[in-house]
Amino acid sequence: MTIASSSPPSRLPLGGAEGARTRPKTDRAKAREAGGDGRLAAVFLAPALLGFVVFLLWPTLRGIYLSFTRFNLLTPAEWVGLDNYVRMVNDPIFWDSLTVTVEYVVINIGVQTVAALAIAVLLQRLTQSAVLRGIVLTPYLMSNVVAGIVWLWMLDTQLGIGNEIIAAVGADRIPFLADETWAIPTIALINVWRHVGYTALLLFAGLQAIPNDMYEAAKVDGASEWRMFWRITMPLLRPVLAVVLIMTVIGSFQVFDTVAVTTAGGPANATNVLQYYIYGAAFGRFQFGYASAMSVALLVVLSAITFLQYRLTRAGQSDLG
Amino acid sequence: MRIRTAAALMGALALSLVSGCAQGGSAGAGGNTVTYWLWDANQLPAYQACAKAFEQQNPGLKVKITQMGWADYWTKLTASFIAGTEPDVFTDHIQKFGQFADLNVLEPLDDLGIDDSAYQEGLAANWRGQDGHRYGAPKDWDTVALFYNKKMTKEAGLTAEQLGTLSWNPEDGGTFEKAIARLTVDKNGKRGDEEGFDKNNVKVYGLATGGAGDSDGQTTWSPFAASAGWHYTDKARWGTEYQYGSKTFQSVIDWYFGLAEKGYLAPFTDYTDGANPANAQVASGKAATSFDGAWMISTYYGTKGLDVGTAVTPTGPTGKRATMMNGLADSITKNADNKAGAKKWVQYLASNECQKTVGGYGIVFPATPDGTQAAVAAYEKKGIDVSAFTEPVTDQQDSTTFSFPITDYAADVYALMRPAMQDVYANGAPVSGLTKTNDQINFVLGQ
C-alpha cells in the first residue's frame, strides 16, 4: 500500500521506468503523459482520499482541537488551553488505567502470539485440512460482546458452569471477573480465545510463503523439526510476525467491548482500561474535552510503540531471496 | 484484527444512526405524532392503554411509544440529543435529571398547571430545577423493602411479624443482624448464629448482595445510612456538598460491608449486574433475603418455585425506618418536534385518569394517591401484599423516606463513588478512604 501511494503513478505495469527510457519521447509528450497520468491517478485516488480526509484526517484534527477545550457536545466548545493535559498528568485514575491497559496488553499479546504461532506451525507442518482451519477461526466469527456475555455467565462465581465444575472437584470457587487479581488476566484470555484463530491464520499465510525446498534441504541435512522452526520458520516469518504483532498490539490497546460487558471497569477500577475510562469521561460524564486529551495521549503512545516495534523487528525488510 | 471489529461496529452504528434519523424524521414529519420513550417493558401495556384513551380524547393526535432496556435507553437518549432526533417526551430519572438540566435539553413545564399536592408528598417538588422551573411531571414512585424466601425464614424459625419489626444499630447490628445470621447456613448445615459456623463455606447467605451501591446505595446501604440520620448532601435538593466523609456514614458502611466478612452478606464477588443480581441469588436459593425496590415485585412473585414475602426495612438508631422513595417523571425535550402535542400528552400522563389506568395493571405505584390505591388493589387481586412498600409512605410516625441525591455533576459523583465503594466492599479498603473521595466530589461540585 505504501509503495502504491508514494511512487509516481505509471501506466506501465512493472519496471515502468526502464520501459520509458527505451522509448525516447519529446518533453512535451512526456509532460502530457505525466499530466494525463496525474489526472487519472487523481480520479482513482479521489474516493480513497475523500474517505481518508472525512473519516480519518478531519476527526483526528478535530479531536486534537477538542482536547484543548471544555466541550459537552451540546453547547459550543470553550478554549481552555492546556488545562485538560494538566489534569491528565495529575489524574491518578488515568495513570492507573494506563497501567491496567499495559498489563492487559502484555498478557493478551504474549499468550495470543505464542498460541497463534504454535497453531499456525502445526497447521502448516501437520495438516492442510481446510476444515481444521475453519474450526480454528470459529470463535472469531462471534461478536466480542456476545463472547463477553457468554464468558461472563460461564465464569460467574455462584452460578457459572465454570465455577460449578471447580466446586464439583472440591476446589474453591474463583471469582474470575469479580476479583481484582483475576479480572484482567481473565478478560485478556477471553480475548485470546476469540482472536487466536484469526492471528494463527495470518501467521499461517506467512508460513505458506516460505519455500518448501528450504525444509526439504534442511531435512536432507538431518535437521529436527525443532531446529527447523528456530532456524528456518522464525527468521523467515519475521516480517509477517512483526506486522501481525503491530496490528494486534494496536488492537489490544483498544480493548473496550469485553470490559464494558463483563466488568464495567470494576471491581474498584481494576479493569478500568484506558478506552473504557475515555468512554466514561465522554459519554458518561460529557467531558469530551478531557476525553479527547486522553485519546490524543493514547494516539501518541500507540504511535511510539508502533514506530519502535517497526524499527526493532525490521518489519519492512524480508530475509527471503 | 480488532480494528476490523471496530470498523464493523462503526458501520453498524452508522447504519443504526441512519435508520434512527429516518425514524425520527418520519415521526416528526407527521406533525400530529408525539414520540414517547420508556425503558420498562413491564409498564408498556399500561402506557399503551393510556395512549389509546389519550388519542380518543384528542382526535388527530397519535402517540408513538418506543421501549428499550435501561442501559440502551440512556445511551440512545444521549445520542438522540446530539443527533437532534430526540423523542418529544421521555421517562426521566432523578439520577439523570441534574445532568440534563446542566445540558439544557429539557423544556420547562410550568404552564402545565401541575399541582404539587395532587401527588404523593415530595414527588412533584423533586422535579424543579435550580432555576425554579419544573422539568418533570410526576409519574410514579417506588420504595425499598426486604424480600424473603418464606421457606427459609420458616425453617429458621422467623415469623413474618418478627421480620417486619427488625431493628439495627452499627454496634452489634441489632435484631436485623441476628436474623440474617440465623438465616445463613454453611456447608455443614450450621447456621450463622451457631457454634462452629464456617463463614468461608457458606451455602445460603442470609442477605443477597446487590453490589457496592455506587453513589446512592438505593437497595444496599441507604436504608441503614438514612435510618442512622445521615443524608447524601447538605440540602434535600440541589445540595452543594456531599457527606460521604461523615463519621455516621462511614460507621454504617463499615458495619454493613462487615456483614460480608462475617459470612452473612454474600461477598462482592457473588454479584454480577447482568448474570447474578440480588433477585437471582434469592431465586437460586443462594440467599435467603434481599433488599430490592418496588419495581421488582412482579419479578420476585413471578419466580417459579419461590414462595416470597416482604418486610419493611429495619428501624435504625433514629428510631425510624428509612427507605429511598424515588419517583420517575415525564419530561419534554427542548427541541421536541411536536411541543404542543407533547405538552398535552404529558398533562394526560400526569392526570389522575391515566395514573389510575396505570395503577390498574399492578406493575408500579403511580404518583397520585388514587393511582397508588388502584395499584395496591391490583396487586391484592394477584395475591400480593405490598404494604411493606406503601407503609413507609403512609406511616410517617415510624418511617421516613428520602430522595435520590439531586445535585449537579451526578455523573461525576457516580464515576468517583462507584470504584471507591467497590474498593471497600471487594478489597476491604478502610472506610476512612471515602473522605478523600468525598473531598474530590465536593471539589468538582465547587467548580
UniProtKB/TrEMBL annotation, chain A:
GO cellular component term, pick one: plasma membrane
Major localization class: membrane
ABC transmembrane type-1 domain sequence ranges: 98-309
Gene Ontology process terms (BP): transmembrane transport
Compartments, record wording: Cell membrane
Entry-linked Gene3D superfamilies: MetI-like
Keyword Zinc: no
Keyword Aminoacyl-tRNA synthetase: no
Protein name, UniProt field: Sugar ABC transporter permease
TrEMBL record, chain B:
Keyword Transport on entry: yes
Keywords recorded for this protein, A-Z: Signal, Transport
Gene3D superfamilies named among the record's database cross-references: Periplasmic binding protein-like II
Annotated GO MF terms: maltose binding
Biological process annotations from GO: maltodextrin transmembrane transport; maltose transport
InterPro entries: SBP
Signal peptide segment: 1-24
GO cellular component, one term: ATP-binding cassette (ABC) transporter complex, substrate-binding subunit-containing
Keyword Transport included in the entry's annotation: yes
Family matches, as PROSITE patterns: PROKAR_LIPOPROTEIN
Top-rank lineage group of the source organism: Bacteria
Family: Belongs to the bacterial solute-binding protein 1 family.
Protein name: Sugar ABC transporter substrate-binding protein
